[in-house]
Amino acid sequence: MTDEAHDDLQRLITERMLELGLSYRDVAERGGLPRSTVHYLASHGGAGRVPRPVTLERLAVGLDLPMSLVRSAAAAAAGLSVGTTSVNDPEVEVLIASLARLSPADRRHVAALVRSLLADGVQSGEMRT
To answer: In whole angstroms, what separates CA 54 from the centre of its chain?
Structure first.
């Protein structure tokens, strides 16, 4: 299956498993889920359905990811949008839309860069615009 065939939740699960060197069984045991559930979520498209909240919570624990990230990926996989407040700035819209296409590791790097830029602006008494 090519990357384009994977939905957001499938990509999140498989990329995180690769990043941490985890198997379906490892994720299942860490999160208290059946192995078959982890495998199903990683290998079958969302088909318009969002998994139950408890399943997403346990998946987040098993993958050691924030619940908000897992919830957003599951919603996107089901064709739903989460947090769609418009900022009326094309550059910000492109940045936000592009983040979903990055790997979890790359998103963490971007987040660290943003925190660093914001901290530099606060320390120097100026905010970047």
So the answer is: 17
* pLDDT tens sequence across 57-72: 999 999 999 988 898 8
Sorted by where each starts, the structural domains of the chain and their CATH numbers stand as 3-77 (1.10.260.40), 90-123 (no CATH)
Instruction: Enumerate residues 6+ apart whose C-beta is below 8 A from 73.
Output: 8, 9, 11, 12
Q: How many CB atoms lie within 10 A of CB 103?
A: 14
The residue among 8, 20, 13 whose CA lies nearest residue 101 is 8
Retrieve residue 14's tokens. Answer: 């498989």
Residue with structure tokens 């985890």? Answer: 22
